């Protein structure tokens, strides 16, 4: 029996990264695990007060940047032009944060009130958090 519980919604990319990381384990694949990536990965219907025969609009986001920009341009040309930069930032954010999903939460009480050994262990655990900060630099949200 394999059990795991990681609840995260950073972005679709993060979910895909985590699932692909898990699929490296051939044991799961031998027992029938298949990862089906979605493309497009997001569909958002837009409810509008339309008087007349106007077709309802929606936003469809996928892995094709040009198509996604075209979809965004229905609502904002400025946002459509900025989308590649946003996507680049989100990918860097996911790459930086993804390793944090594989470590145990830090025991803050041990850092402030624990024995010397507990404090040292907690400081070692801070290394991953430091790497995230270093990777994101000034763009840390």
UniProtKB/TrEMBL annotation:
At the top level, the lineage of the source is: Eukaryota
Family note: Belongs to the carotenoid/retinoid oxidoreductase family.
What is the name listed in the Swiss-Prot or TrEMBL entry for this protein?
Uncharacterized protein
Organism, as annotated? Micrurus spixii
């Amino acid at each position: 029996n394999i059990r795991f519980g990681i609840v995260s919604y950073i972005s679709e990319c993060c979910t895909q990264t985590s699932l692909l990381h898990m699929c490296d384990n051939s044991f799961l694949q031998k027992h029938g695990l298949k990862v089906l990536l979605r493309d497009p990965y997001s569909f958002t219907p837009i409810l509008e007060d339309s008087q007349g025969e106007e077709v309802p609009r929606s936003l469809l986001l996928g892995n094709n940047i040009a198509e996604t920009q075209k979809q965004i341009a229905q609502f904002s040309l400025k946002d459509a032009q900025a989308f590649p930069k946003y996507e680049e930032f989100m990918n860097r954010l996911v790459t930086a944060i993804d390793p944090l999903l594989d470590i145990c939460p830090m025991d803050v009480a041990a850092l402030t009130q624990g024995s010397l050994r507990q404090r040292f262990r907690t400081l070692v655990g801070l290394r991953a958090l430091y790497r995230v900060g270093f990777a994101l630099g000034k763009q840390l949200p």
